[in-house]
Design brief:
19% strand; 3 domains; Heat Shock Protein 90; Beta-Lactamase
């Protein structure tokens, strides 16, 4: 058996249920208090039954969260049947329960919209005519009452159709706002084109002006629909300055170039076009006859939207225009934030690359340059030793080339663990570092790396190498160490690094954490900044016989 369609409970159904109950009780009490000649015992019993029916439906509607999709139609038909029977039993054209037919039209408009209300009006008119005909009523009084009530039905039905059309128009406008497409952040022109294309059709306007200020720069765009969609023209910056005047926070409805209605703090005032921040040259150029102008202000952007050629402007247009303007302002704010983040990320990446080049390749090339200066003197004294030195320098340069290639591949996002694109493994880089410090500084470097480190992302490899290189370089240059021991481990989501040396230690003595080092401005600056940028932990233990640095870096 096919499962019945279920729908969420609606506010309209609950409103109808409560209204039905109140109306039925009122009709029953009125019949008891002021009985009419046509009020029969059958009508009283029918009203009692209907009160019980209305009460049951009300309790059920407020108790459940979903219902059968066919239920509104079934209850609507039941209500019409009851109204027809009650109308027939209580006097036909003279019945005081004519209000029930108005109630049925209201129920139809809430439930089924315009078409359902027209169909219900047809059924009500038929029931009304048949009840009068079956009662056999005659006389001018009955005919007059019949005509008057028939006119009532027509007028009420017409008004409800107008209300339904207005509600559908508002729903379409709100739906268009709710289904605002995702914005493109490639460039500002593309984003503005998308904003104007979607916003221009909400208020029924054919043209739209957008002016906004981002920092000290003003922008102005004009959109006009064409055969292949909206055409967007970027206006000179002076137009943006004109449209964003000192009073650009006001929302304006203008019906003609010579006068406009502006809403300031929700109080309408009639002002001139100049007072409404509409320069005459703009009115002339764009042939402005009617508009809705709404301002917006975000965290980084402030601006104004002008909906031109809005027909039959109303106060409600300001509300919709405000929603549209705020949406456009938030998109422009988002675009500004994205661009700021991109620029910040580029700047941060440049600082990181510069720091990595300084800590590794620049130091290595500096050592090679120092050794090259000694080659001429050694060449005259011992050519064999000079040749060996040149071979060592050549190896250093080759190693630096591999280092630089590894860094370039890391910037391009290549070299993830487990792929064929790993050109230079972390162990190989650390071995090259070991050789470089042995040749340049005559310092013994012992490195122990757990094999699990290969499972870490390549970005972690780069950071590990940079940290070890900086720490070993500090031990060689500042601590005059003869031996450095490096241990690197990778367990779960944390990389552990320990660097110990036998030098003279730091200028301070004792054990300090990263926060203590930052507060007291002690310890290696570059190393502290690098660990802090990685949300890592660091501790330094310094003694006259050497120092030990322990670093924990989370892997994200």
């Amino acid at each position: 058996m096919r499962e019945r369609e279920r729908r969420p409970q609606s506010r309209g159904e609950r409103l109808i249920a409560a209204s039905r109950l109140v109306l039925s009780i009122a009709a029953l009490v009125a019949g008891w208090v002021d009985p009419i000649d046509a009020y029969s015992e059958a009508a009283e019993i029918l009203l009692l039954i209907y009160v019980v029916y209305a009460a049951a439906l009300t309790v059920w509607n407020f108790a459940i969260s979903s219902f059968d999709a066919r239920l509104p139609l079934l209850t609507h038909m039941a209500d019409l049947s009851f109204f027809a029977a009650l109308y027939f039993l209580t006097g036909g054209a003279t019945s005081p329960y004519f209000i029930y037919f108005i109630f049925s039209l209201l129920c139809a408009i809430l439930r089924f919209g315009r078409r359902g209300m027209i169909a219900t009006a047809g059924v009500v008119t038929l029931v009304f005519v048949l009840s009068v005909a079956l009662k056999g009523e005659s006389g001018w009084a009955e005919i007059d009452r019949f005509i008057i009530r028939a006119v009532y039905l027509i007028v009420v039905a017409t008004l409800l159709i107008y209300v339904a059309d207005s509600q559908q128009t508002v729903n379409r406008e709100l739906s268009r706002i709710a289904t605002w497409p995702r914005a493109s952040w490639t460039n500002l022109t593309t984003l503005v084109h998308q904003l104007l294309d979607h916003a221009s059709g909400v208020l029924g306007s054919t043209r739209i002006l957008l002016a906004f200020e981002e920092g000290s720069a003003s922008h102005a765009f004009y959109g006009e629909p064409g055969d292949s969609g909206i055409t967007v023209e970027e206006l000179p910056p002076e137009f943006g300055d004109q449209l964003l005047g000192p009073s650009s926070n006001r929302s304006v409805i203008a019906d003609s170039p010579g006068g406009s209605m502006t809403f300031i703090r929700e109080r309408p005032q009639i002002v001139s076009a100049a007072d409404a921040d509409l320069p005459p040259e703009l009115i002339s150029r764009f042939a402005i006859e009617s508009l809705v102008a709404v301002s917006f202000r975000g965290d980084f952007v402030r601006g104004r939207v002008f909906f031109l050629d809005v027909h039959r402007t109303m106060h409600q247009d300001l509300t919709l225009g405000t929603i549209i303007a705020d949406t456009m302002g938030s998109r422009l704010d988002h675009y500004h934030t994205v661009q700021q983040l991109k620029r910040g990320a580029v700047a941060e990446e440049r600082v990181r690359v510069a720091r990595d080049l300084h800590d590794s390749i620049l130091q290595s090339l500096t050592g090679a340059a120092l050794q090259l200066r000694t080659i001429p003197r050694i060449m005259t004294r011992n050519p064999t030793e000079a040749t060996e030195r040149l071979n060592e320098i050549q190896q250093v340069i080759s190693t630096d080339q591999r280092e630089l290639r590894w860094m370039i591949d890391s910037l391009h996002g290549a070299g993830e663990p487990g792929s064929a694109g790993v050109p230079y493994e972390i162990e190989t880089r650390l071995r090259s570092l070991q050789q470089r410090f042995r040749h340049h500084w005559n310092m013994q470097v012992e490195i122990s790396v757990e094999p699990t480190l290969r499972l870490a992302p390549s970005a972690v490899h780069l950071e590990v190498y940079s940290i070890v290189s900086e720490a070993v370089a500090n031990a060689a240059k500042h601590a005059a160490a003869g031996k450095v021991t490096v241990e690197v481990g990778y367990r779960g989501k944390v990389v552990d690094i320990a660097i110990a040396d036998d030098g003279k230690g730091f200028p301070f003595q004792g054990r300090f954490t990263l926060s203590e080092l930052l507060d007291s401005a002690r310890g290696p600056v570059t190393l502290k900044e690098r660990v802090a940028s990685l949300n890592g932990e660091m501790s330094i233990e310094s003694t006259p016989a050497g120092s030990r640095i322990e670093i924990r870096v989370p892997v994200t």
